[in-house]
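Re: that chain you flagged

S.,

Sorry for the slow reply, it's been a week of failed gels. I finally had a moment to sit down with the sequence you sent. For the record, here it is as I used it:
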Amino acid sequence: MNALLVLDPQIGILKKKDFSEELTRIRTIISDFKDRDQLVVLFQHIDSADKFPNSPLVEGSKGSKIFPEFIKLADYIVPKRTPSGFMNTELQNILQKSNVNHVFVVGFNTEYCCLFTSLGAFEKGFDVTFIEDATGTVNDEKTYEMPGLDIRDMVGSILNWSRVIEVLYYADYVEKYGHKRNR
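Prediction finished late last night. Pasting the structure tokens below so you have them in one place:
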């Protein structure tokens, strides 16, 4: 069984910049998983007001809410307080009871939650596919003071070079795993 892990499709992130291309890909992948009765798990990152008073994801804030259109598509919504979807959450239990052996990772922010959840999934023994262009980040080259930095490409390259996590672009995902291929 496969599971799609959709990291943090939350108002506080999605209002920061134009993620229309990423959201279109994520919606299509979710639809693909639902059409094949595969598991869809959404994550909701929650920051505490004590530690992160300026975060758009502070517990109870409007920004911490999951983008409404995604809520009805989830089999599970997993709250988390760290970048990893596995750290102090019910994710591993959910995946085990559903007999999942392969997870696909999409969502936000590429270099934090998507990266850490991908690595966590590998460490827990799952096959992992990271769909690079179905992730996005509010950060850019200025955030890291690295002119020319393409965050998605950097994270995708690091994971790909690991040779333990499959990294695909959306078109490659459709070619290899998409439901049109499996009809």
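What I noticed first: Residues 62 and 170 are 30 Å apart (CA to CA).

Talk soon,
D.
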